[in-house]
Fold these 2 entries.
Entry 1:
Amino acid sequence: MNLKPIMETKNNPNINFVDAKSALSWDEYFMLQAMIAAFKSKDPATKVGSVFVDKNNHQITMGYNGFVAGIDESQVPWGKDKSAPLEFQKYGYVVHSEANAILHSSRSLEGARAYVTLFPCNECAKLIASSKVKEVIYLSDKHQETESNRIAKKIFELSSVSFRPLTFRPEILLNLTEHLQNLLSDI
Ligand SMILES: [Zn+2]
């Protein structure tokens, strides 16, 4: 412990200039936002989230995969068994997270960055590229062997939308848990 004389401390103009830095990079911050958005999805099998951000690091819009807005959800299925007709599969009724984010944006997405928990499908890639989003940052690319994924990448390459994966620093999730526990202990 620093036991400087009181007068010296009192007159020290640097006393409040302590070292401080955010625990998170902007990339990590917005990917966590996208992960929280995914957590909101009701889909029992696949929860996907996305957040679109402007050049000043302000969030423009967010989305997660869910049924058509306003639909009576008791009348449509969450199951994905493709042995049933499309009318009785979730795929007939679900709107993807990126499509929801774009649909519900009240501002232009030109020049925006998109943070997505899963690499976009070709249908969402069409919307992203047509909205003039400039960069896609993704967490998982687990469908990279599929035709939809190849088409999505082709769309991005042809329309100059760059894309890159994001890997969290290992300490981040630990720090986040500690942070949440600190906040909750204040209640
Ligand atoms: Zn999609």
Entry 2:
Amino acid sequence: MTMATDQQRQSAPGETLAPSPAVAHHEGRRRARPRLWHHDYLHLRPLAADLRHVLGHARGEPRGAAEPWRILDLGCGASPYREFFPAALAAYVRVDLDSTASPEVIARGESLPFAEATFDGILATQVLQFTDEPQAVVAEIRRLTRPGGRVWLTCHGAWPREGTTPENRYGEPDLERLFSAFERVTVTAEGGYLGLPFALFNLAMREGVRAAERRFGRAALLLRLVAVPCFLAANLMGRLLERLAAAGPLRPFLAHLDRSLSMNYLVVAERGA
Ligand SMILES: C[S@@+](CC[C@H](N)C(=O)[O-])C[C@H]1O[C@@H](n2cnc3c(N)ncnc32)[C@H](O)[C@@H]1O
């Protein structure tokens, strides 16, 4: 187990500067409250909505309200979904391999420095795609969850890779296999085929604006003003199609297509006794 120090939070020469606490906080809030004018709204909206629902219902169960939960946030980053838990938790332990996230414990998900059954619930959002040993991470998550405890894990399905970090992608059968040692496993697809082209359009647009800013500096900042209405229009189109797939006369045609590809998945699982 390693505790982060201020010195470790500074970037080494040549590395990308770590985001300031204010920037990390802003990004966390943005992920928890995606807005229609954000480029990644179609990706983050269902993720935040589903997590708000399942984590909000974690209150007091199954230990009872008198015994609040001990939660582990694995691969915590800025812990954007911390606020979805009920306020009264016995502990909220933030773990990440990256010291710039200012976690309480610096460790890898593949081998975690806690005793068996330490936590009532484990949250691991958008981290599984970064490990080459997903079985090891899920086995550690199961080991640390007390019998009857809950796991909430999200990861990418169909989504482009960003940057140079290797990333894996998952489908429903992969996740069901990975969680086969758990009980009451549900895998929920988030963000379907119909929204995907609009989400990709927004990603491409954002990359274009970034490239222009790198090339032309401040002169290209104006492009952000152009991009925002484009994000908004694409998000509205994506939402409209998602709603038509969910209800109305076109549902039989669109629902199947929408389910055939998913941007993201949410796994909720319980460790058996
Ligand atoms: C995309 S960020 C997600 C952060 C946060 N959970 C969220 O949903 O916004 C992925 C995080 O996982 C961390 N990470 C990547 N691989 C990891 C591993 N093997 N063990 C622990 N953390 C890891 C990264 O340092 C990063 O903070």
